[in-house]
């Protein structure tokens, strides 16, 4: 995660008991001596208070001041009550006067993504953080770690730690290009990105199709409108009755009985203006007669011979009548370009009299699977192989979005064949989608082929499942290299491919639905990455949306997607969601 701060930020991450504060207390004089002006942000437990009971500021806060700024000759302090939720990390950072600082050091906040030094002491008996937190840039410990490339220091060697911080601040102060092109794919490789950064980069690099075609309304389900539509007619065309009953004049409500002068069925009309004392028997949808602006429903009517009376029905002038143009008035805006057409839109287009409409042409998506172990279904299973599931989940996902699918099957791990297939696919399709072979350190040939063909970046997204993701252009067509694990494929598709395809299809303003639900169980995550667990949400007896996981969350367990009706999204800033806490869910209905 990057923060829009003009000065560097550096954290000290450790389990409690490691002695963070003691270390910082000893370190700060060395840093200030080296000329650094230091801001500190410390995360404390929720009941902390800097104020003292009985002090004026305390009394004023308790009396109702939600922000209390207290100032004296030597310092001031702003205390802000945050009863609803702890302030966002980024917001807290924005409280500093960075013009008077060289660096912000952070104690705590180990679940939030920003550069940190891991502090570790063996006696505390806690696991290492760096294997699961890509934000750790160095280690200060009382033991050596073998399997890491991170710089390591002795936790008791304060000089080295101070030197590290000073160099970190100096290198961060080097002017960096703020050029927007920095977001271009070819400057990013290999990179760690947050989910949002990945989404934004991809969306900024794909464009809507230009070609449109005419489509009959009956075939328009799921298509994206390529036109602004305004209403050529009034809907409804004429004022009509909303009930089976009797139409009378709205200025003639007080009579004991009315003479029934006609009966009007839907599709017909009574052409004479209704006179005082008259009623017309009318069916739902039939045009109301001139002056007959009020309808009383049949159940409230008593007839005798040619007369009708309404007893003590409480009649309001104008009731039970649908006005001409009440749904859509002539000339009013109905849909804009980029509207995806579903059932209501099909009906509305028809209600306006349109037999066809202009839509963006269908998006052609080429798909293939990779890997020598991957075998097509429908054939006897070979030793050491797995059936190809990814191509089929992807087909379903593409079907849901109304894409034309070009199925290139399974590609062998052979560079020549890959190059040929990618070339063919990119010539025939608007987008190329593969799965497998993009993990960093993977020996698959697809990477070699991609390197030769286009501009592809191999990203590591701070998410689970679905960390590896390749994205770029082959032959000027967007290319997505999804991970190989079946759940990771779906989660990556939902997060990165679907928004991009929707944009390419011309759809505008699409946002995934996200809502909050109460966790029924503790949900584990890891600091610094977004966790997408497969969940089942439901309304409990009290009307509260609750969510539980589908159980085992391995990224190969495709059944978890089948059992889920939502993804549970745990943000990088959160480590564990406790049972009873609120969590974000992404309902999957209509998307998978
Ligand atoms: P990879 O990223 O190629 O190393 O793949 C990661 C995991 O996903 C491996 O266990 C692969 O066997 C599996 N995998 C790759 N492609 C497919 C596929 N098309 N269908 C099912 N599993 C796959
Ligand atoms: Mg593979």
TrEMBL record:
Family: Belongs to the MoeA family.
Transmembrane segments: none
Enzyme class: transferase
A Pfam family of this chain: MoeA_C
Keyword Metal-binding included in the entry's annotation: yes
Record key words, sorted: Magnesium, Metal-binding, Molybdenum, Molybdenum cofactor biosynthesis, Transferase
Species in which this protein is naturally found: Vibrio nereis
Reported cofactor(s): Mg(2+)
Function: Catalyzes the insertion of molybdate into adenylated molybdopterin with the concomitant release of AMP.
Superkingdom in the source lineage: Bacteria
EC number(s) given by UniProt: 2.10.1.1
Catalytic activity, as annotated: adenylyl-molybdopterin + molybdate = Mo-molybdopterin + AMP + H(+)
PANTHER family referenced in this protein's UniProt entry, alphabetically: MOLYBDOPTERIN BIOSYNTHESIS PROTEIN, MOLYBDOPTERIN MOLYBDENUMTRANSFERASE
GO cellular component, one term: cytosol
Name of the protein this chain belongs to: Molybdopterin molybdenumtransferase
UniProt cross-references to InterPro entries, sorted A to Z: MoaB/Mog-like_dom_sf (IPR036425), MoaB/Mog_dom (IPR001453), MobB_dom (IPR004435), MobB_MoeA (IPR012182), MoCF_biosynth_CS (IPR008284), MoeA-like (IPR038987), MoeA_C_domain_IV (IPR005111), MoeA_C_domain_IV_sf (IPR036688)
GO biological process, one term: Mo-molybdopterin cofactor biosynthetic process
Pathway field: Cofactor biosynthesis; molybdopterin biosynthesis
């Amino acid at each position: 995660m990057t923060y829009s701060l003009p000065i560097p930020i550096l954290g000290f991450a450790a389990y409690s008991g490691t002695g963070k504060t003691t270390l910082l207390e000893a370190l700060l004089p060395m840093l200030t001596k080296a000329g650094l002006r230091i801001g500190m942000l410390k995360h404390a437990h929720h009941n902390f208070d800097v104020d003292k009971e009985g002090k004026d500021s305390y009394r004023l806060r308790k009396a109702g001041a939600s922000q209390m700024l207290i100032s004296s000759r030597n310092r001031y302090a702003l205390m802000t009550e945050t009863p609803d939720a702890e302030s966002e990390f980024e917001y807290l950072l924005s409280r500093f006067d960075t013009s008077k600082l060289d660096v912000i050091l952070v104690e705590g906040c180990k679940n939030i993504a920003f550069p940190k030094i891991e502090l570790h002491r063996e006696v505390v008996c806690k696991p290492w953080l760096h294997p699961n937190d890509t934000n750790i840039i160095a280690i200060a410990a009382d033991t050596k770690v073998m399997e890491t490339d991170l710089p390591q220091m002795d936790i008791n060697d304060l000089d080295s730690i101070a030197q590290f911080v000073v160099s970190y601040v100096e290198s961060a102060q080097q002017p960096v290009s703020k050029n927007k092109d920095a977001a271009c794919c070819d400057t990013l490789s290999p990179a760690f990105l947050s989910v949002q950064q990945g989404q934004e980069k991809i969306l900024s690099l794909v464009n809507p199709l230009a070609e449109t075609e005419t489509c009959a309304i009956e075939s328009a389900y799921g298509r994206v409108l390529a036109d602004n539509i305004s209403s050529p007619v009034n809907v409804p065309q004429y004022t009509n009755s909303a009930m089976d009953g009797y139409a009378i004049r709205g200025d003639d409500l007080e009579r004991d009985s009315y003479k029934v002068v006609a009966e009007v069925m839907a599709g017909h009309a009574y052409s004479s203006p209704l006179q005082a004392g008259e009623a017309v028997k009318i069916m739902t949808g039939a045009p109301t007669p001139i002056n007959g602006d009020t309808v009383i429903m049949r159940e409230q009517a008593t007839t005798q011979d040619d007369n009708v009376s309404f007893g003590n029905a409480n009649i309001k002038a104008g009731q039970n009548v649908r006005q001409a143009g009440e749904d859509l008035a002539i000339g009013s805006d109905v849909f804009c370009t980029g509207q995806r057409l579903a059932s209501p839109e099909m009906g509305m287009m028809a209600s306006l009299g349109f037999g066809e409409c202009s839509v963006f042409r269908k998006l052609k998506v080429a798909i293939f699977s990779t890997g020598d172990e991957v075998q097509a279904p429908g054939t006897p299973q070979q030793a050491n192989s797995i059936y190809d599931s990814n191509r089929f989940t992807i087909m379903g996902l593409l079907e849901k979005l109304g894409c034309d699918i070009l199925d290139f099957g399974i590609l062998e791990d052979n560079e020549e064949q890959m190059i040929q297939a990618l070339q063919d696919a990119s010539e025939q399709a608007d987008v190329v989608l593969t799965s497998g072979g993009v993990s960093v350190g993977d020996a698959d040939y697809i990477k070699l082929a991609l390197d030769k063909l286009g501009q592809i970046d191999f990203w590591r997204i701070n998410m689970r499942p679905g960390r590896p993701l390749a994205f770029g252009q082959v032959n000027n067509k967007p290319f997505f290299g999804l991970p190989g694990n079946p759940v990771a494929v779906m989660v990556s598709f939902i997060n990165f491919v679907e928004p991009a395809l929707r944009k390419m299809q011309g759809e505008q303003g699409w946002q995934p639905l996200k809502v909050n639900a109460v966790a029924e169980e503790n949900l584990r995550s890891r600091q610094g990455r977004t966790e997408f667990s497969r969940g089942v949400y439901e309304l409990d007896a009290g009307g509260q949306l609750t969510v539980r996981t589908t159980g085992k969350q391995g990224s190969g367990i495709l059944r978890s997607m089948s059992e889920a009706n939502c993804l549970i999204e745990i943000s990088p800033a959160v480590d564990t969601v406790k049972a009873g806490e609120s969590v974000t869910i992404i309902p999957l209905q209509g998307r998978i």
